[in-house]
Amino acid sequence: MADGSHVVYVLECADGSLYTGYTTDLERRVAEHDAGDGAKYTRGRTPVELRYHERYESRSAAMSREYEIKQFSRTEKERLIGLE
């Protein structure tokens, strides 16, 4: 994979909830979520909007960051993505 091809992202769902995920193809993955073909969580919450992403050089670094963000409170996630 090319440098920075591992991406952690945060989506805002139609119901206002936030979803955090990992991918190597951000555009494709967001389109999958939006079409209802992404994660089970986002299927009933379309449309989704990409609110934030970070790029990493390794899968392990990205997966660690995804886990870290998923542990955040709603307030911490809002601060991260600039909603606060």
How do you describe this structure in short?
The protein has 4 helices and 3 strands. The chain has 84 residues and is an alpha+beta fold.
SSE map:
Layout lengths: L5 E7 L5 E6 L2 H9 L5 H4 L5 E8 L2 H12 L3 H8 L3
Antiparallel strand pairs: 1-2, 1-3
Tell how many strands the DSSP assignment holds: 3
Secondary-structure element order, as H and E? EEHHEHH
CATH architecture classification = 3-Layer(aba) Sandwich
Strand content: 25-35%
Distance between the terminal alpha carbons, to the nearest Å? 34 Å
Count the helices. How many? Answer: 4
The H-level CATH homologous superfamily, spelled out, is GIY-YIG endonuclease
In order across it, which strands form the biggest sheet? Answer: 2-1-3
Specify the CATH class.
Alpha Beta
What is the overall silhouette?
globular
State the share of residues found in helices, binned by percent: 25-40%
* Rg, Cα atoms, Å: 12 Å
The SS-based structural class is alpha+beta
Assembly of the depicted chains = single chain
Low-confidence stretches: none
CATH topology: GIY-YIG endonuclease
Mean pLDDT: 94
How would you sum up the major sheet? 3 strands, antiparallel
Number of domains: 1
